[in-house]
Design brief:
Elements: E1 2-6, E2 9-13, H1 20-40, H2 43-46, H3 48-53, H4 56-63, E3 68-72, H5 78-86, E4 92-97, H6 100-112, E5 118-121, E6 134-140, H7 149-158, E7 160-171, H8 175-184, H9 191-200, E8 203-212, E9 218-227
Parallel strand pairs: 3-4, 3-6, 4-5, 6-7
Antiparallel strand pairs: 1-2, 7-9, 8-9
Bound molecules: S-adenosylmethionine.
């Protein structure tokens, strides 16, 4: 919320995010274009570097072949596909999305990449899983869509096992971020904000790294942190 004082007036400007239903409809309509967007920003490869830096891969290898991963707001599966390309052993991939069209696309793209994901239509704010059921819970370019990203993060932490890792990638403030904000009513999240969310969720070993999205440059930031044992 921004407050401006003009003479005897005080003007409050607050962001009006899309509702969950409106956002799902917009992604249903945009699903056809998403494969092009993903190629343009080279998401499959962009996510690899921070996944390696965060040590998610090493952690998962230690629990393989029982490693369980949840991808929230899966889109067409770029983040899971990037993670799977870095893993030697099998991973039990679960993924949710509110958009039925994106889920249909995720199924076909992920299967084509050799994954056999368990997909469900669900909201990241209300995950249909038991407490402490995943080794890694991740979300790329999802939290910036939500009116209260910290509520989503709390729900992601609920389903994370002790010692497990949360991995996030979000749009950072930039010219590109401002364009995305205008088109999709998203937030652009600073490094300080992302780190504060993770600390507020009682997570430890917090880390972050800027992420290059093809021609858009360093347009996003990846954040990660671990749940205490
Ligand atoms: C920008 S796309 C990112 C897709 C994918 N994670 C990637 O990085 O390629 C955002 C995705 O989040 C989904 N989404 C938006 N709000 C959601 C919510 N509340 N719960 C679950 N998924 C959501 C959208 O339908 C869309 O598929």
């Amino acid at each position: 919320m921004t407050t401006r004082r003009i003479g005897s007036w005080e003007v409050l400007i607050s962001r009006r995010p899309l509702s969950t239903t409106d956002l799902a409809s917009r992604y249903d309509a945009a699903s056809g274009k998403w494969a092009r967007t993903e190629r343009r920003f080279r998401l499959n490869t962009a996510y690899c570097e921070p996944l390696l830096t965060s040590q998610v891969v090493i952690d998962l290898m230690q629990v393989a072949p029982q490693a369980r991963v949840l991808d929230c707001g899966v889109g067409n599966g770029s983040l899971s596909i990037a993670l799977s390309s870095l893993m030697k052993g099998p991973v039990d991939f679960h993924a949710i999305d509110t958009s039925t069209e994106m889920l249909a696309q995720a199924k076909s793209v992920m299967q084509h990449a050799g994954l056999d994901p368990h997909l469900q239509q669900a909201d990241v704010l209300s995950l249909p899983y038991k407490d402490q059921s995943f080794d890694v819970v991740m979300a790329a370019h999802v939290l910036e869509h939500l009116p209260d990203p910290q509520r989503a993060l709390a729900e992601m932490v609920r389903v994370l096992k002790p010692g497990g890792t949360v991995f996030l990638c979000v749009t950072r403030p930039s010219l590109f971020g401002a364009l995305i904000q205008l088109l999709w009513r998203t937030w652009a999240i600073t490094e300080q904000e992302g780190i504060a969310w993770l600390h507020a969720s009682q997570l430890v070993d917090v880390g972050y790294q800027p992420v290059r999205l093809g021609s858009a440059g360093l347009a996003s930031t990846a954040f990660w942190a671990r749940r205490s044992r």
